[in-house]
Amino acid sequence: MTLVKALKGIHHVSAITANAKNNYNFYTEILGLRLVKKSINQDDTSVYHLFYADERGNPGTDLTFFEIPNAAETRMGTNSITATSLRVSTDKALQYWKKRFTEYKIEHDEISHESGRASLAFKDFENQRLILVSDETNTGVEGGKPWDKSTVPVEYGIIGLGPVILTVSRLELTEQMLTEIMGFRKKGSYKGIVDGMEREFFLYETGEGGTGAEVHVLELSELPRERSGRGSVHHVAFRVEDEEELTKWINRLNQNAIPNSGFVERYYFKSLYFREPNGILYELATDGPGFETDEDFDTLGESLALPPYFENQRKSIEAKLKPLNTKTK
User: Which UniProt keyword terms apply here (predicted)?
Assistant: First the structure.
């Protein structure tokens, strides 16, 4: 079997929104993230793909959204990514965010320590399930750097992606993929409350471990499969070093007869897609070349950025998109 390096952690999470303008307002104005790239869904050029991250879109900090204007409401269920975590530096930051969510009338829970770290669950305007998690005790993968022009003070700013939570119907299938194929380590478990009942979450980590390199899995076999829509997660991506390493992962999947996309050019990174046995979509993505490939640092996200292989379609692409003003105020 092809030898590969350990996955470095979470690269990005991609979700679905029905309204790019409201999405932009929430994630930049309320959450204080920077829009580092305003582009298109490369598989459907009629809709936006928005990338929010730290100051320059470092790997492991990107929360991205495909705009699907007619997306129905999500029917929550199993075999899906049921929560995305966002990292903050300290426990104190969560107190700031709890107050901020109250002021902005954002639906949120109380600060919790179920996973062994201080965390604060909340939802966006489309019921996207999100969790702020403190990095105060983190000793693994380092976070990013908040943008100094954010609406949120730098000391409380979001510094990257934390653990994703998967809900699956058959835990053993997901665990086998994570540990035997993808090289994750099973780290332990913890108890959490789900719909008023105590449930056990299983924790897996990769690379240096820590907040930015974990997957938490909950088994709920009694639920129907989630029907995705606005407010649901499309896929989670994990970090690989470069294109050479990505090629090794393609070979590894092929040797294990795991159906996959093969090499996919995304311009800002190179990708590989496949589904784990419960049907959740995974992506492996390279750390580079990054979002400053076609824009300067100071103006990231302000204009519609198209990979070179779409530039000859710019006029027709722009004609299909609703105008979205993302100029820095």
Answer: Dioxygenase, Oxidoreductase
Q: How many residues does the chain have?
A: 329
Give all strands of the β-sheet with 62-67 in edge-to-edge order. 34-41, 44-53, 62-67, 10-17, 233-240, 281-289, 269-275, 264-265
Whether the upstream peptide bond of residue 289 has omega within 30° of 0, thus cis, is yes
Share of the chain above pLDDT 90, in %: 96
Kind plus residue range of the DSSP H or E element containing 258: none
| 3-class state of residue 35 by DSSP | strand
Are 256 and 25 in contact by the 8 Å Cβ rule? The answer is no
Structural tokens at position 63: 């929360």
Place of tokens 């699956």: 168
- pLDDT, tens digit (0-9, with 9 covering 90-100), for 263-308: 999 999 999 999 999 999 999 999 999 999 999 999 999 999 999 9
Alpha-carbon dihedral 74, 151, 42, 182, rounded to 10 degrees: -70
| pLDDT tens-digit series, residues 137-179 | 999 999 999 999 999 999 999 999 999 999 999 999 999 999 9
Q: DSSP letter for 285, please.
A: E
Indicate the residue type of 24. Answer: Y
Of the pLDDT bands very low, low, confident and very high (cuts 50, 70, 90), residue 329 is low
CA-based end-to-end distance of the chain: 52
CA triple 168-254-261, angle to 5 deg: 70
DSSP string, 124-165: -TT--EEEEEE-TT--SS------TTSSS-GGGS--EEEEEE
Residues with Cβ < 8 Å from 138, sequence gap 6 or more? 87, 117, 210, 211, 212
Rounded to two decimals, the pTM is 0.97
Element (H, E) at 317: helix 314-320
